Amino acid sequence: MSDPQYELKQWLAEKLAARGVASKLAGATGMSNDKITRSKELHSDDPKKRRQISLQEIEAMARFFRELPPGFEQMTRWLEDLPPPPRPSRYQTPVSRRAGSNSPAMLRFRFEGTLPPEPTVGSL
Fold first, then answer.
1. For residues 27 and 19, what is the distance between their CA atoms, to the nearest angstrom?
2. Is the pTM of this model over 0.85?
3. For residue range 11-30, what is the model confidence (pLDDT) as tens digits?
4. How far is residue 46's CA from residue 68's CA, in Å, rounded to a whole number?
5. How many other CB atoms are found less than 10 A from the CB of residue 68?
6. How far apart are CA 101 and CA 112, in angstroms?
7. First vs last Cα of the chain: how many Å apart?
8. What pLDDT shows up at residue 116?
9. Which is more confident, 47 or 24?
10. Fewer Cβ within 10 Å of end Cβ, the chain: N or C?
């Protein structure tokens, strides 16, 4: 089946490959997770599993990813006046608890950002 938005959907699928990106895109654009999943569908013959992406949705996606999708390189005004990207945190962020544990000491952490330099003997 020929899809005029094939390259766009391929770009979107690549952008959404990392875990959690679709949910962040949904929150930022107001689109549902289901709508985003159907937007990136490339090979389904079932019309309920795919959809055309509107121009407003393409603009919102470009602004979210801070990148123009293929076929829309001339739409540079979409990326004007964007707020600066969020700075990475220098602190650890809890990502999950061990199963069955309610103790804060049992939290697992993922590091985001950079650590301050280790103190040396002369600096203490």
1. 15
2. no
3. 999 999 999 999 999 998 99
4. 28
5. 19
6. 24
7. 69
8. 66
9. 24
10. C
**Where are the chain's structural domains?**
6-79
- Find the DSSP H helices in the chain: 6-15, 21-29, 33-39, 55-65
Contact 59, 67 (CB under 8 A): no
Handedness of CA 8, 10, 12, 14 (dihedral sign): negative
Pairing of strands 92-97, 107-111: antiparallel
The kind and range of the H/E element at 75 are none
- What are the phi and psi torsion angles at 13 (to 5°)? -60, -40
Evaluated on CA atoms 34, 35, 39, 44, the torsion sign reads positive
